[in-house]
Amino acid sequence: MKRAYKYRFYPTPEQAEELVRTFGCVRLVYNKALEERTRAYKMEGRGVSYAESSAALTAWKKTPELAFLCEVSSVPLQQALRHLQAAFANFFARRAKHPTFKSRKRSRASAEYTRSAFRWRDGRLTLAKMGAPLDIVWSRPLPEGAEPSTVTVSRDPAGRWFVSLLVEEKIAPLPPVERSTGLDAGLTALLTLSCGEQIANPRHERRERRRLAKAQRALARKEKGSKNRAKARLKVARVHARIADRRRDYLHKVTTRLVRDNQVIAVEDLSVRNLLKNHALARAISDAGWRELRRMLEYKTDWYGRTLAVVDRFFPSSKLCSVCGTLQEAMPLSVREWVCACGAVHDREVNAAKNMLLAAGPAES
Ligand SMILES: [Zn+2]
Predict the structure, then answer these.
(1) Ligand 1 centroid – CA 344 distance (Å)
(2) Which residues form the Transposase putative helix-turn-helix domain (predicted)?
């Protein structure tokens, strides 16, 4: 199993300069290749292969205007083309939207190095075109004897540098358990379990939101292009980064516990994109990080020998009585509690979670 380990690191001024230049070249190559592909598709109705993009890159490097592409490691540039290839494959398979251009301001700056473009020796990582290893903060150990196969360097909008190491790892499945659970992604609670337990949204989020709003107001008051504006923008980015970090930590704790305690986890295949169209719900859903939570559940159930059962999103989980199976005609969002003709009293979310588990069927053993 491949697993990524992400750490902060502190580049020397030379390393930072080399990386910033590499990020710029990666972005340029990605955008140029995207432009070329879009043109080929629109004008000639044809796709462009990776080999073709790669040949184009070689040609660009030979032109005087783009000769600077030769100054950085060629591997991250090749990887950018591979990422674009994958993005188009997802687009054509209807799994993703059409790839968009990477912007210097809005996109996360990153560069990916494969085995030939870095040296890994005695736990020290040296990237191509660099003399010294990176000064990495090993906040948790890499597994014993791990050999990274791919290394991704990035810088977030708050100016922090990260390196992610992809390593091959054997993960032992957990011993089987009897319990299974259905999950309902809620508005009042982050999650409701079929046993009735509710997992709250992280408590700090509201306070951080206020801090963010304050930083954003301060930014809006600063003059465009001024030094103070740049400082204020960095401050906004730092608050964003802290919110995202703490939310991720929280989701890791929640998903690890769910996967440890349950053999089957049944979730509704909610399309986040569809839900976000409803603006009243948008904030709560993005805050809850449902998409991230789903992703974590997917790989953790896979690692630990558990099952994630995804229930069709047209399954009427809120309208069904989980006791007698009667379907209610309507169940507006404002209804939090209801009584079925059979006499069962339901909490909206607990009932939905129970139905999810029923729909997933009995646990496979
Ligand atoms: Zn009933």
Answers:
(1) 6
(2) 1-45
